[in-house]
């Protein structure tokens, strides 16, 4: 910013000189005041001398003279101070003139520097504006060139489109000409064919009359004889055709189903745990067993009455067994005993307190397991009561397979198969995920878990498709929808894959024996072999009693009876083997 220039001799100088004059005036006034004061003191001294003249003139004169001398000394001091003040005023005036001249000189210097700086800034601004204008002009030129090139490209594309349109018009005109020629040719051919058909009809009628004359039979009688003669052969050929069609359909269906199932199993895998009705709790030492039993067995009795879990204490070192058919109750008992062992205080009142704490903890774990399963499957709008029942399945097993994990796995498999078939994936997942919900109440409500689960789903607002899939997944109700069929398939895939489930040896042997009995009871069966852990059955038939068509019928009958009478994971393949052997001796 430029500063205002101070011109010498103006109002500034007058202001400085006036101040100095005022300083001089003040000094003179002070000096006059001192002089007047000295004179007043002298007058007072004279009056005092006159008053005290009677007391002693000598002493009074001396005192008066002393006072006069003092007054003169003070007056001289005042005059000296006045002279010094005047000298200082002159020096201050000279200093003020010098400071003013320096200020004028500095102001001129600053003003000149400001002018130079302003000119330099103006030159920089002009240079920047010039460069900005050049850049904008260059940018406008480049934009104009790009727009011109774009216009040229568009014009070229328009010309190319017009050329292609013209060629397409030419092709259409040529096609219309060919179509017109073809119409004319077809008309002529139709006329020729009509003529030939009339001729053939006449020849056929003449041939029929000649055949009737030669055979002495009418056409209806000949047709009846012909139908009767070939009826048996037609039936057999029809059976063979049906068999071939069924075999081809089964082959295609098996291939497609195998592809879907393999793809589903490949894309989903889950951990499997082996659980039972007995839980083992390890103890820090065998001395803890005595504290668990308590005095005269009061602790163990209180524990069993509060938790409803049987506590088995045997010779197993540093371990006790908890037995209960209800897995949730067994888990609550296990946590209760574990907390008691860690705390060390075991008595009936403490058992009740720890039991309530463990029960709440298990409820929280069940809710968390249900929420994790729902998040894994992708279901967010499930009723809270169904969610609570799902959490209880965390501790439920079926043939060693955890039911909650089985539901998650089944839902994933069903969703994959539904996606492959173009169905509603969320509904399919929901039906498969809830198909075993009835197992959470199997011991509390009488009836099949499928029907119990269907009633629960219907009670808590699930759709009819989901309810039907639940009640039909074990064929208590015949499946009527594709969701029900796919739920059965996904359930079989999850429960039937190797390692998913285990069953007792007795049930396994009984199932194999019953499979062989069903096949052996059929007519013409010679031998029956259950193979691959009961997943395939080989039926050997006598070739003289059963032909090829009968073998197909036998395989279908055996498979259907097995489906109706037995419950098994996965599927069972029925293979009928018919073998003919001819032996001749060469002598």
Automatic annotation (TrEMBL):
<keyword id="KW-0472">Membrane</keyword>
<feature type="region of interest" description="Disordered">
    <location>
        <begin position="183"/>
        <end position="204"/>
    </location>
</feature>
<keyword id="KW-1133">Transmembrane helix</keyword>
<feature type="domain" description="HD">
    <location>
        <begin position="403"/>
        <end position="496"/>
    </location>
</feature>
<dbReference type="InterPro" id="IPR022711">
    <property type="entry name" value="RNase_Y_N"/>
</dbReference>
<keyword id="KW-0812">Transmembrane</keyword>
<dbReference type="GO" id="GO:0005886">
    <property type="term" value="C:plasma membrane"/>
</dbReference>
<dbReference type="Pfam" id="PF00013">
    <property type="entry name" value="KH_1"/>
</dbReference>
<keyword id="KW-0255">Endonuclease</keyword>
<protein>
    <recommendedName>
        <fullName>Ribonuclease Y</fullName>
        <ecNumber>3.1.-.-</ecNumber>
    </recommendedName>
</protein>
<feature type="coiled-coil region">
    <location>
        <begin position="61"/>
        <end position="106"/>
    </location>
</feature>
<dbReference type="InterPro" id="IPR004087">
    <property type="entry name" value="KH_dom"/>
</dbReference>
<feature type="transmembrane region" description="Helical">
    <location>
        <begin position="22"/>
        <end position="41"/>
    </location>
</feature>
<comment type="similarity">
    <text>Belongs to the RNase Y family.</text>
</comment>
<dbReference type="Pfam" id="PF01966">
    <property type="entry name" value="HD"/>
</dbReference>
<dbReference type="GO" id="GO:0004521">
    <property type="term" value="F:RNA endonuclease activity"/>
</dbReference>
<keyword id="KW-1003">Cell membrane</keyword>
<dbReference type="GO" id="GO:0016787">
    <property type="term" value="F:hydrolase activity"/>
</dbReference>
<comment type="function">
    <text>Endoribonuclease that initiates mRNA decay.</text>
</comment>
<dbReference type="Pfam" id="PF12072">
    <property type="entry name" value="RNase_Y_N"/>
</dbReference>
<dbReference type="InterPro" id="IPR006675">
    <property type="entry name" value="HDIG_dom"/>
</dbReference>
<keyword id="KW-0378">Hydrolase</keyword>
<dbReference type="InterPro" id="IPR017705">
    <property type="entry name" value="Ribonuclease_Y"/>
</dbReference>
<dbReference type="InterPro" id="IPR036612">
    <property type="entry name" value="KH_dom_type_1_sf"/>
</dbReference>
<dbReference type="InterPro" id="IPR003607">
    <property type="entry name" value="HD/PDEase_dom"/>
</dbReference>
<keyword id="KW-0540">Nuclease</keyword>
<dbReference type="GO" id="GO:0003723">
    <property type="term" value="F:RNA binding"/>
</dbReference>
<keyword id="KW-0694">RNA-binding</keyword>
<dbReference type="GO" id="GO:0006402">
    <property type="term" value="P:mRNA catabolic process"/>
</dbReference>
<dbReference type="InterPro" id="IPR006674">
    <property type="entry name" value="HD_domain"/>
</dbReference>
<dbReference type="InterPro" id="IPR004088">
    <property type="entry name" value="KH_dom_type_1"/>
</dbReference>
<keyword id="KW-0175">Coiled coil</keyword>
